[in-house]
Amino acid sequence: MASVLETADLKGIAQYIKSGKCKNISLMLGAGISTAAGIPDFRSEETGTSPVRRTFVNVYSLTNESRPSGLYANLARLNLPYPEAVFEINFFQNNPTPFYTLAHELYPGKFRPTLTHAFIRLLSERSLLRMCFTQNIDTLERRAGVPANKIIEAHGSFATQRCIKCKTPFDDTKMKEMVSRFSEDKVVPKCEKKGCKGLVKPDIVFFGEALPSAFGQAPRIIKTDTDLLIVIGTSLTVHPFASLAYICPDNVPRVLINIELVGDFGSGDEDVILLGKCDEVIQELCEELGWEEELLKLWEET
Ligand code: APR
């Protein structure tokens, strides 16, 4: 089957997008798109010295020579049996303190969307965004102005919270206050329903929990309703989210925008691999598209 790309590179992607043949762009996003906002990713050795990372290095590093590094490398020092325990429901039930220590650092409101988040909004404004599948819980896609019906937060988000025992929703304002005060008073939000007192947890998908039902439509969208799949800032290590990258039809181009090569990129005839920092690659792509001014204007609005 003839390729839809004249050249398998950034120029070829820009030409395809401008050709009018590319109407439905789906995105798969990971923590790498928020590192420039100051939120560490999970597994990188070092993704810049963000203010948050400096906090982690200061608060959690046992020695001074520890290098800034991904979240998991830092959290391991927080008396966790292993880093991922911070997102495990059984560990949380017995000891919610590490999670709320992390939540205090990452809670929405402290961080500004990046150029990459502005690009998602730009695709939506140009009616080219089919769906933005994100693993991120920072709600920066919403903050960037991407319409809610164009976002599927596969791992949930900090946007809402509820009791893990009786599932009663917990007040947003009260949650925000308690999380922002947590570093001082270490008070964990508890259910206020009479006689319950269960632990309150943001609607983030912990390991072992089911993904939101909205994620169920993802395979169909990728398989039948996507003309271009762009994967940005993810190690593609966590399933079932990562599996979406492998079900893209052979004739649909896949683009990887990432610091490192991940997944099975390079094995597909229509793969385009653009290694580097996503904000820089996105800016170059928008230059090629003639959208750079629009991109910067949208970013300034965030
Ligand atoms: N530009 C491009 N790529 C970047 C940048 C950047 N500025 N910063 C980091 N990256 C890349 C890293 O090289 C890495 O490949 O982003 C990827 C981030 O990978 P992870 O830290 O594993 O984050 P992610 O893929 O989102 O993790 C998936 O793991 O623990 C779970 O639920 C958690 O949703 C998370 C999931």
Automatic annotation (TrEMBL):
Binding site for NAD(+): 31-35, 41-43, 135-138, 234-235, 258-260, 278
GO molecular function ontology, one term from the record: zinc ion binding
Aminoacyl-tRNA synthetase as UniProt keyword: no
Coiled-coil regions listed: none
Keyword match S-adenosyl-L-methionine: no
Cofactor requirement: Zn(2+)
Residues the entry annotates as binding Zn(2+): C163, C166, C191, C196
Substrates-to-products reaction catalysed: N(6)-acetyl-L-lysyl-[protein] + NAD(+) + H2O = 2''-O-acetyl-ADP-D-ribose + nicotinamide + L-lysyl-[protein]
Name of the protein described by the UniProt record: NAD-dependent protein deacetylase
Range of the intact protein held here: 1 to 302 of 433
